[in-house]
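Why Calcineurin-like phosphoesterase domain-containing protein? Reviewers of the renewal asked for a concrete example.
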Amino acid sequence: MPAHGKKLSGAPISLAEAQRTIEVVDSSATRVEAAAKLDISQRALQSRLKKIKARHGLSPDGARKTERPTEIEFPDFPDEDVEVEELLDMAEKRFEKRMESHEAHTWFPIKVKDNRPFGILWFGDPHIDDNGCNLPVLRKHVRICNETDGLVAANIGDTTNNWVGRLMRLYAEQDASIKTARRFAEWFLLNTPFFLVLVGNHDAWNDGAEILARMVSKNKAHKIILHDWEARFRLSFPNGWEPRIFAAHDFAGNSIWNPMHGLMREGQKGEDADLYVAGHKHNSGLFVFENPGRGRIQTFLRVRGYKFMDDHARRLSLKEQRTGCGGVTVFEPERRTITTFLDVEEGADFLTMKRGKRAAA
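Here is what the prediction returned.
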């Protein structure tokens, strides 16, 4: 509203403005007095009164236009939806359930049955349907995981290429069809002793996450936890030791000099944990140091995954690493130590040796 109550001529007149105008006219002795009170001309007042009558059915006597036929009576139609208060109550319940689930899935405990050395084989990005997937190494790691006592598996994400949008043209450049890709993924998920599978960026495209969820639900031998992008959990041993593990498809932060930058940034400034694991960038690295600020020895592991001969990386002049497709972390609850290997076979042998040594003691 412009100063002094003046209104732009083209703007619609609200009901409140109309009522105020009528009140001023009714309380004034003349239209000249009313126009002066409203700080407009008599002609502008006359025009405004016409607009008010046409739009709101009000005239200077204050009565609302109420003409309607008396020969008919309209039915009362019920509202097509439930009351808004009911919708708000339901939305509130859903929020409470989501919050309860979110908190239960954050730093959740994984109970280990005894205090013997225990291991996790971290599978880097499989891209199992890609022509460049190193299937000899991946299948070897699956066999090692199945044959090594005390060793379970975690998938860091991007099980298949799962191309989307303009990238779907790349299906023409790979041998595996979408159907075959899903068969490969199901074989991998159901024939490896996974306890954790992360949804990477490739997995999340299209309906990939829902397809993975249906696949892991077929495992009747044991539960597989499926988490979007990251999982924060604790291994809970009978002797009370609970190492904290933060596994993510990747962490924020990048450095051309240090492939561990994102993980170490999280270890310094983010969530407190004993072990950080990531993949995604198709390179590998391992770093261990005592963090006095956190009061613990922290381990940072990046697994490169199984995709080789990557045209995208070649065009960016990124050199291809050969090692670290996966990694093995061994937890020794009696010594409360964590030992990590970028060589899966060496890590599995170390776990077997440690478990045998304890059994012989």
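The first strand starts at residue 106 and ends at 111. This is the kind of structural detail the renewal will allow us to pursue systematically.
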